[in-house]
Amino acid sequence: MILDPDALDAARTYKILIATVVPRPIGWISTLSSANVPNLAPFSFFTVACRKPPILSISIQHRSDGSTLKDTYVNIRDTGEFVANLVTLPLANQMHKTAFEHQPEVDEFEEAGLEKAPSVVVRPWRVALAPVAMECKLDREFTVGDFHDHVVWGRVVRFHLRDDVFNNENTHVDTSALTPVGRLAAEYTLVDNVFVPPLEQQILRRYDGARMHRLDARPADWAAVNQKDWSPSGSVLKPAE
Q1: For 125, which of 70, 116, 118, 197 could close a Cys bridge (C-beta 3.0–4.6 Å)?
Q2: Structural domains in the chain?
């Protein structure tokens, strides 16, 4: 099937993008409002924009009403600071809780039951149990597209790397010890295997046409994006309290 994006509405185009540009890393962004209220929210339109100086990029849409600015963007715009925390499987449930829209006066750390840790250069708190966190200063911000999505670039001014995942002698991160969580359309994925090509043919044949294994015990063909109450701001079902 060949599709012309100019002939599709925004919702259909968005669903195709988030289902095919996968897996996407999750930037779990912590900020502090001008009134000193902590905020924490995950963003999967997140990547590295530059290596030297190290710059991270976040694309931030509006709230689900299509017009209200998200607290994360407002806080970064007003204070010029944020922290990008790495999401790992032990933190997945709490990360999911922070994906839902809250009022600006709500502290998502408290809402999700997360411990805060102080930063060194910037004022926003870090997620204490995140094995990796990057303190960032706003480098630039601009809007793109018909809906004026905000793109934020932040220069990393401090890396926080947990001792057990960073080998200081060889200056490399033990990626295999991170159990990072990524985004697939309106669902998540656990990165739990690594490889270097070439792979043996029997392994390639085993995975040819195979479906992903679900960790949540739902049917193999179940998809959150197909549910009636799906919304771009979070997954379909709120996590259990």
Answers
A1: 116
A2: 5-226 (2.30.110.10)
